[in-house]
Amino acid sequence: MVDFAAFKEEVPSDEHLALRVMPLPADLNPAGDVFGGWIMAMVDVAGALPAIRRAGSRVVTVAVNSFVFKQPVSVGDIVSFYAMVSAVGKSSITVDVHVFAERNPADPVVVKVTEARLTYVAVDAGGNKRVVGEDGERAAVAGCGQPPSDKELVLRVVPFPADVNPAGDVFGGWIMSMVDIAGAVPAIRQARSRVATVAVDSFVFKQPVSVGDVVSFYAEIVHVGTTSVTVDVEVFARRNPENPIVVKVTEAKLTYVAVDEFRAKHPLPAR
């Protein structure tokens, strides 16, 4: 995320970044803000991720200890969910979640929108409560893909059963739509305005994605023209909490054009 000095000390490090998503018009309530239930659902997912890693197994939510909405969230905000384990019991794990929104590309700002505390219980494959081990999160994660150090982590999402295709893998169209959003994030910042996708220069699926994978999208601007921005996106999936592994699942290159409120092409601002 862009480093905004006013929030540098308040925003947690990406070490604790559980999710980073962009709400869409389908997530709005009748008042035109993002539905509070959408935020609550994402907080629950975000809090579960460090709990799953700590437990090394499935977890179930047993309590929402506190939940405070501080600011509304709008379509197009880049919403980051930071989650940290705050307490571990015999079978329970309590997690603090802090949520920030980056908005207004013409004059970017980051605001804290939500904070919450939730408690989860570790369960086995049969759904029975189990004891949490004392080893903590694994220090190393195996894998055949190394997330790039030169690209920004722009999105991190978890696909759900509604996103699968008839074969039981996550639908390729879902991944393509997330890649399009991920590539648009740095393009919007460069343009300081809305952008429109004009070309998919390349798109390669390397591995299938499954429900429950933590899918991270890394993006980097590779070319800037008069009105266009070309972005490379690499996608990695973290899976199997009992024996974690990270694999590269997709890579793509997309081109966007800056547009104004009337959807007319306009020149990019001077860098």
What gross morphology would you assign? globular
- The total count of strands amounts to 11
Protein structure class = mainly beta
Strand content: 35-45%
Order of helices and strands: EHEEEEEEHEEEE
| CATH second-level architecture of the largest domain | Roll
CATH class of the largest domain: Alpha Beta
Mean pLDDT over the residues = 91
CATH superfamily annotation of the largest domain: Hotdog Thioesterase
Helix fraction by DSSP (H/I, runs of at least 4): 10-25%
N-to-C span: 18 Å
Number of discrete domains: 2
- CATH topology name of the largest domain, in short, is Thiol Ester Dehydrase, Chain A
Uncertain segments are 1-6
Largest sheet: 6 strands, mixed
Number of helices: 2
Rounded radius of gyration (Å): 19 Å
Can you offer a commentary on this structure?
There is one protein chain. With 271 residues, the chain is mainly beta. The chain has two domains: 5-123, Hotdog Thioesterase (Thiol Ester Dehydrase, Chain A, Roll), CATH 3.10.129.10; 142-259, Hotdog Thioesterase (Thiol Ester Dehydrase, Chain A, Roll). Helix content is 15%, strand content 42%. Strands 6, 7, 8, 9, 10 and 11 form a six-stranded mixed beta sheet that branches. The two termini are 18 Å apart.
